[in-house]
């Protein structure tokens, strides 16, 4: 929970979730399987949602007496909830109304991820899979050796053999294309990148009306730093043959203000057209980007 909500430090016993944090956490947990650790038998359940009330607020009848989930766990399992102000996990089947405190649940390992990865998860996934060809080949060869196909009695019985070597085919290295700039200058890309410094674009486009939107709070994204960025952008554009004006609209805003701010930007721009909207996103936010992309 702390990782998904980017929380730092230990969680106090009185900690409670904001509605926005609960929505984020519920989205991450939905349909995952969890195992419980307050019973001798570690049963598994599928998560449906989080309860709207906390463990201390949810009550039910036990032998004719009203009892909260915290009280029930103390009586039935001799377990005192450490975080009674957190919601419970509502598990399948939903119609049975089975509510389990979050602190006694562990996410079952090895499950397929059925939701969109967060920015950090995407970065970690790319880092784990983006390997050089020879490293990937070494890993594949090692897996083949570990499978021990030669010693598999079932393959031998059916007369199957698996070649331990990769198929070799002829390949061709295609030279990277040249990029043309103004004044008959050209550059050949190296390693998939090229350097624009000291060169002007063949057909530069001017940026007359553009906006700068800052989603992090002002203490994390200083006004002076934003101004310096705009000045550098204008200078770099000029060096490349582009004419970039000062931004016509600069504002700090929240995620829920995106659509209304876009209407304001159109009114600010001369002629009603916007060439560019530059957005500075908050760190570790996975919800801001798709909203901007939608607008």
Short description:
This protein has 295 residues and is of the alpha+beta class. The chain contains eight helices and twelve strands.
The percent range for strand residues is 15-25%
Order of helices and strands: HEEEEHEEEHHHEEEHEHEH
By oligomeric state, this entry counts as: single chain
Percent helix, as a range, is: 25-40%
Tally the helices: what do you get? 8
List keywords for this structure.
295 residues; alpha+beta; 5-stranded antiparallel β-sheet; 8 helices; 12 strands
Word description of this protein:
This protein has a 5-stranded antiparallel sheet with strand order 6-5-2-1-7. A 3-stranded parallel sheet has the order 11-10-12, with no helix packed on it. Strands 3-4 form a two-stranded antiparallel sheet. The longest helix is centred in the last third of the chain and has 17 residues, at 223-239. It is α+β, with helices and mostly antiparallel strands and 295 residues long. A hairpin with a 6-residue loop joins strand 5 and strand 6 (98-101). It is flat and about 90 Å long. It has helices at 19-29, 69-77, 119-129, 133-147, 153-158, 223-239, 258-268, 288-294; strands spanning 33-36, 44-54, 59-62, 65-68, 87-91, 98-101, 105-107, 178-180, 186-188, 210-214, 249-252, 276-280.
Write the layout of secondary structure elements.
Layout (H helix, E strand, L loop, with lengths): L18 H11 L3 E4 L7 E11 L4 E4 L2 E4 H9 L9 E5 L6 E4 L3 E3 L11 H11 L3 H15 L5 H6 L19 E3 L5 E3 L21 E5 L8 H17 L9 E4 L5 H11 L7 E5 L7 H7 L1
């Amino acid at each position: 929970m702390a990782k998904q909500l980017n929380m730092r430090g230990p969680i106090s016993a009185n900690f409670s979730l904001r509605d926005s944090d609960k929505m984020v956490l519920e989205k991450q947990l939905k349909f995952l399987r969890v195992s419980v650790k307050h019973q001798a038998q570690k049963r598994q359940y599928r998560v449906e949602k989080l309860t709207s009330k906390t463990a201390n607020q949810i009550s039910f009848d036990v032998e004719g007496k009203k009892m909260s989930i915290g009280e029930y766990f103390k009586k039935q399992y001799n377990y005192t909830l450490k975080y009674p102000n957190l919601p419970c996990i509502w598990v399948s089947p939903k119609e049975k109304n089975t509510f389990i405190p979050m602190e006694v649940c562990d996410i079952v390992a090895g499950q397929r991820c059925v939701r969109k990865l967060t920015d950090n998860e995407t970065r970690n996934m790319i880092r784990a899979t983006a390997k050089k060809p020879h490293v990937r080949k070494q890993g594949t060869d090692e897996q083949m050796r570990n499978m021990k196909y030669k010693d598999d009695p079932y393959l031998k019985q059916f007369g199957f053999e698996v070649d331990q070597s990769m198929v070799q085919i002829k390949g061709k290295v295609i030279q990277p294309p040249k990029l043309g700039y103004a004044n008959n200058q050209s550059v050949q890309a190296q390693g998939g990148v090229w350097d624009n410094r000291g060169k002007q674009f063949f057909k530069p486009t001017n940026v007359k009306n553009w906006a700068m939107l800052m989603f992090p709070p002002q203490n994390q994204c200083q006004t002076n730093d934003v101004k310096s960025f705009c000045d550098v952008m204008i200078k770099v554009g000029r060096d490349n043959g582009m004419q970039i004006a000062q931004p016509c609209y600069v504002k700090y805003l929240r995620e829920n203000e995106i659509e209304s701010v876009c209407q304001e930007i159109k009114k600010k721009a001369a002629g009603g057209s916007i060439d560019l909207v530059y957005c500075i996103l908050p760190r570790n936010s996975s919800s801001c980007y798709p909203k901007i992309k939608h607008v």
